[in-house]
Amino acid sequence: MPAATQASARIPAARTAGLALFLLTALNLLNFIDRYILPGVQPLVQREFGVNDAKMGLLTSAFFFTYMLAAPLTGWLGDRFRRKPLIIISALLWSVATLYTAKVHSYETLLLRHALVGVGEATFSIFAPSLLADFYPETARNRVLSIFYLTIPIGGALGYLTGGIVGDHYGWRAPFYVAALPGVLIAIAFFFLKEPKQGSADRLQATENRATLRGLRQNPSFWTATLGLAAWTFAVGALSTFLPTFFHRFAGMSVGQAGTVAGAVTVVDGLVGTAVGGWLAQRWMRRNHRALYLVSGWGSLLSIPFVALVLFGPLKLLIPAAFAAEFFLFLGNGPLNAAIVNSVAAPIRATAISLNLFLIHALGDASSPHLVGLLSDRFNLRVGLSITVVALFISGIILFSGARFAMPLEEEK
Questions:
Q1: How far is it, in rounded angstroms, from Cα 217 to Cα 132?
Q2: What total number of domains does the chain contain?
Q3: pLDDT (tens digit per residue) in 64-111
Q4: Which of 154, 174, 198, 404 is the most exposed place for a label (fewest CB within 10 A)?
């Protein structure tokens, strides 16, 4: 094919890949806005239903319980059927479940609503990275997934802010509409996107342990990244659930103020930390193919002293320590997810991502919010949240151990 023809063929492909990244990132943003509205309105929900911290933590645990149970089935579907219609269905499912919040007038109904949203979000969270991996090769996935996962801090911050501010003025149900209606519109727009052939962007050799379910059991690069992320998720799930409540309870902030401060910390650090972590890993990979693991491991370990300072330090250092803690927590946001996607080949990628999601939530935030709530009710919220320090230490050790299993990428050749 002549060079001019090749170039003209690449332009539509690049445009399609860019459009896919934009639409999937927008859906993921709405996904996380919805997820973090509840922590932003948590004191208002507790006041209406008269429930303790353990029951509030159980709401998040129920979400992740259904989230992780849905993962294995949806991963199997993603390796056998086109991902585009599956993504559309999942986005519509969690959007409709979010709209259902207006009908919630008891704690038990809210628990059911939150569990249903988990099914839709789990499906989307598996198919989206798998589809992006078919638009971009291994060396570009850290950059692409760093952009995609910027939605975690931005969506979390907007969820906190929307929940706290809108909830203060219009009641805690009103903020949930923010994520629901746009999600339906973007899902419809996604219908017109052209889906690439599975595995079309892969450059690494599809060895047995990367391309078969039997080999996956003996894939240390996948398992160390997954277990390291699980320990990180245990800590972040608990911290994100109770951070606005912690500010409200120990810093004397109103519900709106606590949501605003938690949102500001999360969005600034999420943007800066994720961008710096993705940039650092991309540059470091040119000299060291272990960079995706190392950046993530350092992020977990360096966050520990600042998390401890948030929980037990003087009040005047609370906000600066929170900024420092979340900056380091978000360093591995893109690199670690890129390491997981790169650790497997296209034939089993959706299944592997579903297994990863099942494990990081089963071992992570499916239990940590409820456990923190139980410890808070028995002692106080400071003691409850202190278990996150142990989880972050475990995360760092696992990721440093797993770095030696990382596969060399094209940029080193």
A1: 24
A2: 1
A3: 778 777 777 777 676 777 778 888 888 888 888 888 877 788 888 888
A4: 404
The angle that helices 3-49 and 177-190 make with each other, rounded to 10 degrees, is 160
In a domain, 335, yes or no: yes
User: What is the domain range of residue 175?
Assistant: 18-191+220-412
> How far is 217 from 219, CA to CA, in rounded Å?
6
Phi-psi region of 380 (alpha: psi -120 to 50; beta: other; left: phi over 0): beta
DSSP state for residue 313 in the 8-state scheme: S
Tokens linked to 313: 């330090």
Whether residue 6 is contained in a domain is answered as no
Answer yes or no: is 7 within a domain: no
Q: Which two tokens stand for residue 364?
A: 């992570």
Amino acid at 230: A
Tokens of 412: 């080193």
Q: What is the pTM of this model?
A: 0.77
The CATH number of residue 134's host domain is 1.20.1250.20
Report the alpha-carbon distance of residue 223 to residue 220 in Å, rounded: 5
> In this predicted model, what pLDDT tens digit does every residue of 252-297 receive, in sequence order?
788 778 878 887 888 888 889 988 999 999 899 888 989 999 999 9
Any domain includes 99 = yes
